[in-house]
Specification:
This protein is of the alpha+beta class. It folds into three domains: 153 residues, Adenine-n6-DNA-methyltransferase TaqI, Chain A, domain 2; 104 residues, no CATH class; 138 residues, DNA methylase specificity domains (Adenine-n6-DNA-methyltransferase TaqI, Chain A, domain 2). 38% of the residues lie in helices and 16% in strands. It has 15 helices and 21 strands. The strands form seven sheets. The chain has a four-stranded antiparallel beta sheet with strand order 2-8-5-6. Strand 17 and strand 18 form a beta hairpin. It starts with a strand and ends with a helix. One of its GO terms (molecular function) is DNA binding. Keywords: DNA-binding, Restriction system. Belongs to the type-I restriction system S methylase family. InterPro entries: Restrct_endonuc_typeI_TRD (IPR000055), Restrct_endonuc_typeI_TRD_sf (IPR044946), Type-I_RS_S_subunit (IPR052021).
């Protein structure tokens, strides 16, 4: 390292430290798409930006928040609530953007300091603990004030060039993690689009109906919709692929009929999701059972809004305790749902680490009836639909906090074919989700490598490493 290390107060290296406000009109005016993103605390995760729940505001609202317009390389930190002290940087594709009152901008002077390094410094264990301690010093809920941030001290190389080199070693790992996350988001979008096409919008059925009305071949019309290819292009498919496509098209009828859910394909029935994927709750592990080491226990807090089941902050149980609890052992690809609290109805995909994990009470797992041969991806997509999450919330009971039973979950209505199409859907998207699971495992490995190297790099013990090759 060419330069000495020294201490910096944030006010000395930042040209801006400040949070935003709630836009005029409040949450009811937010939209899912628009020109100006509004970044809230739920979008700021440690190391990474989350697109889940990203809201948008109009130009008039954004103009009133011009003083908290996000710029490239801004570092964001959550300053209130349970997510206080979470830190990330914003991808350029989110801009233009503003922040609300729960998020503060840390805008670094690039001639004095590396913004990327500041992100990693604030995320180091020592500095994270200091920030959390500061935030908990108030009389009410956790909060970091502007003064606390301005006077917060970090230790780093004096030369900004060395700072940037140091940060880039860690950034190379985060770039790989971000790329995997983007791939997984695309895979989920592909699976959700297929689910909606087949089981919500009934596009192959409607294609057949239109073809019949126009005097065209209904099977070919359905095949075009299912494959996304023209009839001429499907002729170039290999025989096995073409036959599979034709068989899938045959599973869709050519008319819709009235039902309690509205128009549904003729021959399909209205049933409950529990008729296909019955749920059951986890085991009521006792506080005295939890250990520092052992098998992770999945609780509600471990199910993220992004479809992940987080293993980082889990309590553990000993192997001896789970000998007679095989029913609650979780496998890769299991689908879970939160049954209590503010995040009721959120679902996640289990991806185990080195040890198997186990299901805690108030978390539901979905099984499947014997006619289902190829996974639970239909259930995952069903509960990812916003309207079904809303039904879970509206069906919940409890004055202090919402609760739903497995009976309540199972009672949600859905359309059911003869199970052939559900199995075909599960088989088709299983390929996508196996890639998703492998990417998630790689992300965890990369995160563990980054976290193990972070304190060594920031202490000056090492300066470079062959990040990806060693991952």
């Amino acid at each position: 390292m060419s330069s000495k290390w020294t201490y910096f107060r944030l006010i000395e290296i930042c040209t801006k430290i400040g949070s935003g406000a709630t836009p005029t009109g409040g949450k009811s005016t937010y939209t899912d798409f628009g020109e100006y993103a509004l970044i809230r605390s739920q979008n700021v995760l440690d190391f990474v930006f989350s697109y889940n729940g990203l809201a948008y505001i109009n130009k008039k609202q954004a103009t009133k928040l011009n003083n908290v317009a996000i710029e490239k390389n801004d570092v964001l930190i959550n300053i209130t609530g349970d997510s206080v002290a979470r830190v990330c940087m914003v991808p350029e594709n989110v801009l233009p953007a503003r922040v609300n009152q729960h998020v503060s901008i840390l805008r670094v002077n690039p001639s004095l300091f590396s913004a990327k390094l500041l992100k990693y410094l604030l995320l180091s264990n020592d500095n994270k603990d200091k920030l959390l301690s500061l935030a908990s010093s108030g009389a009410t809920r956790n909060a970091l004030t502007k003064s606390m941030l301005e006077n917060f001290v970090v230790y780093a190389p004096k030369d900004p060039v060395d700072q940037e080199k140091l940060a880039q070693n860690l950034q190379s790992l985060d770039d790989k993690i971000a790329n995997n996350n983007r791939i997984n988001q695309t895979l989920e979008e592909m699976a959700q689009a297929l689910f909606k096409s087949w089981f919500v919008d009934f596009e192959p059925v409607k294609a057949k109906m239109q073809a019949i009305a126009q005097g065209n071949d209904p099977q070919i019309a359905a095949m075009e919709v299912i494959s996304g290819k023209t009839a001429e292009e499907t002729q170039n498919f290999a025989d096995v692929k073409y036959d599979e496509l034709r068989t899938t098209a045959d599973l869709f009828p050519d008319s819709l009929v009235e039902s309690e859910l509205g128009l549904i394909p003729e021959g399909w029935s209205v049933g409950s999701i529990g008729d296909v994927y019955p749920s059951f709750g986890g085991y009521a592990f006792k506080s005295k059972d939890f250990k520092e080491e052992g098998y992770p226990v999945i609780k509600i807090k471990n199910i993220g809004e992004d479809g992940r089941v987080n293993l980082i902050d889990t309590q553990k149980i000993s192997p001896e305790l789970v000998i007679d609890k095989e029913r609650f052992r979780l496998q890769d690809g299991d689908i879970l749902m939160a049954m209590t609290g503010a995040t009721i109805g959120k679902v996640g995909i289990v991806v185990n680490g080195e040890n198997p994990s186990f299901l805690n009470q108030r978390v539901a797992k979905f099984g499947s009836v014997s006619k289902i041969k190829s996974g639970n991806w239909f259930a995952y997509q069903f509960f990812k639909l916003e309207e079904n999450r809303s039904l879970i919330i509206s069906s919940s009971q409890g004055s202090a906090q919402p609760n739903i039973s497995t009976t309540g979950i199972d009672s949600l209505k859905t359309t059911i074919d003869n199970f052939e199409l559900i199995n075909r859907f599960n088989t088709k998207v299983d390929i996508l989700f196996r890639i998703w699971i492998n990417n998630e495992k790689e992300c965890r490995k990369l995160s563990e490598l980054r976290d193990s190297l972070l304190p060594k790099l920031l202490s000056g013990n090492i300066f470079t490493f062959n990040s990806i090759d060693n991952a």
